[in-house]
Amino acid sequence: MTEYTAGGDPGAAKPAYLIRGVRVVGAAPTDLLLAGGVVAEVGRDLAARGARVVDGDGLVALPGLVDLHTHLREPGREDAETVESGSRAAALGGYTAVCAMANTSPVADTAGVVEQVWRLGREAGLVDVQPIGAVTVGLAGERLAELGAMADSAARVRIFSDDGHCVADPKLMRRALEYVKAFDGVIAQHAEEPRLTEGAQMHEGEVSTRLGLTGWPAVAEEAIIARDVLLAEHVGSRLHVCHLSTAGSVEVLRHAKKRGVRVTAEVTPHHLLLTDERAASYDPVFKVNPPLRTSADVSALREALVEGIIDIVATDHAPHALEDKECEWAYARPGMLGLETALSVLLDVLGERWDLIAERMSRTPARIAGLVEHGRNPAPGVPANLTLVDPAARRTVDPSEQASRSRNTPYAGLTLPGRIVATFLRGEPTVLDGKAVK
Ligand SMILES: NC(=O)N[C@@H](CC(=O)O)C(=O)O
Q: Which amino acids does the record list as binding Zn(2+) 1 (predicted)?
């Protein structure tokens, strides 16, 4: 009887894996044989034939998670994160692909920088790292970056974003939307009208008034989304809205989708769980852009995610070095870690709605990013990118246990459901028994 291996040169053959008795979304427990980089067989009581056996009893198999919004900080701030440390954090969080934001130093606004990030991702080999290119040179909002050269590069960039900054100039935004149509690209907008958020420290509302901190009004986000869906409709191009955070934004999006505008949107785990009341602690770990909003916003975001008005969950994983976070609120950088806790937060927020979780955290983000190897339910012949979750486990978040180089998780001390037991990238484990393999 032939022995299963991962294929290729027999001398260098990688072991095959047999996952026994795992629950695949929407189906009864089954065995999954991973060999040759793909799911080779699905069925009951498969013979191991040399494959390494993983006990899937009580576990759920999801298509590997896909994050459309990750800050990896390399090049430039390797003290906060590297492509490798961020990739490891992602794998431990159940991800098999992440899209790396362009606000590095130098900015990822040329073919050279996006290729560098892409190559570093391949070398780390823990998740597929798909670089996002900047929309404007140096994120300065003045001139379009080399979108075509980045699209034609080895990194094959399809998503462009000035995230951290809004493409505020409507003429430039229109041009960018027009330009990317040629290769079915998408502009991912950080929706923040800068004139309305000058000096802003937190959400503008009752809590900011009480604390005496300058507010970031909801309308600063909603006004840009309203403008951009109209521009996207006019041009017939694809718009993606980053980290949507207000109830009003949901209504604008609902209207745009009803009109058939080609718009998609993401929400972060933290905007689904935390509110602006956290700012009362003056702990800068809760400072983020866009800011934490009210409980009414949180409810609206949850409903919109279930309904599909919001298409996906994206982490906005934003690692920051200690000196950028352990300081006075006003001086702290905005941003929170997200990769290693996202699935647990979603289980807490949605409960065990596995098909919905697979849709919002894997299948749809893969489709938006054009990552055809990802976001597919395990079936014979499908690339073996998947993650195994133990839904019965609970864990208390400890910042010192994060694989990220940074410690700025807003969930420290919080007990959350679910644990990632294993992650497979093209049939090879990046995480086994809850630990990174390399
Ligand atoms: N989301 C954040 O709070 N921070 C982001 C950039 C940004 O959107 O400001 C970062 O890069 O740190």
A: 69, 71, 163, 316
At 27 the pLDDT is 82
Shared-domain flag, residues 339 and 393: no
- Measured from the Cβ of residue 333, the count of other Cβ atoms closer than 10 Å reads 18
Record the tokens describing residue 144, joined without a space. 């379009």
Tokens of 246: 């207000």
Range of the domain at 294: 64-369
Residues 240, 291: one domain? yes
> Is 316 annotated as catalytic?
yes
Number of domains in the chain: 2
DSSP string, 308-330: TSS-EE---B----HHHHSS-GG
Active-site residue identified among 316, 324, 348, 390 = 316
Looking at the predicted structure, is the pLDDT value of residue 1 above 50? no
Same domain, 74 and 50: no
| Non-local CB neighbours of 267 within 8 Å, separated by 6+ positions | 243, 244, 245, 301, 304, 305, 310, 312, 313, 314
CA angle at 332 for the pair 209 and 290, rounded to the nearest 5°: 60
Statement: the pTM of the whole predicted model exceeds 0.90 = yes
Q: What pairs with residue 240 in β-bridges?
A: 188, 264
Q: What is the ipTM of this complex?
A: 0.96
Nearest CA to ligand 1 atom 9: 164
Q: How far apart are CA 127 and CA 70, in angstroms?
A: 12
Residue 16's CATH number: 2.30.40.10
432 SS3 class = strand
Distance CA 435, CA 92 (A): 7
268 lines ligand 1 (CB under 6 A): no
State whether 44 and 135 are in the same domain: no
Residues 345 and 388 in one domain: no
Other Cβ atoms less than 10 A from the Cβ of 323: the count is 11
Mean pLDDT, residues 57-78 taken together: 98
Residue 194 Cα to ligand 1 midpoint, Å, equals 14
Q: Render the burial of 161-177: b for 16+ CB within 10 Å, e for the rest.
A: bbbbbbbbeeebbbbbb
Structure tokens at 402: 């994060």
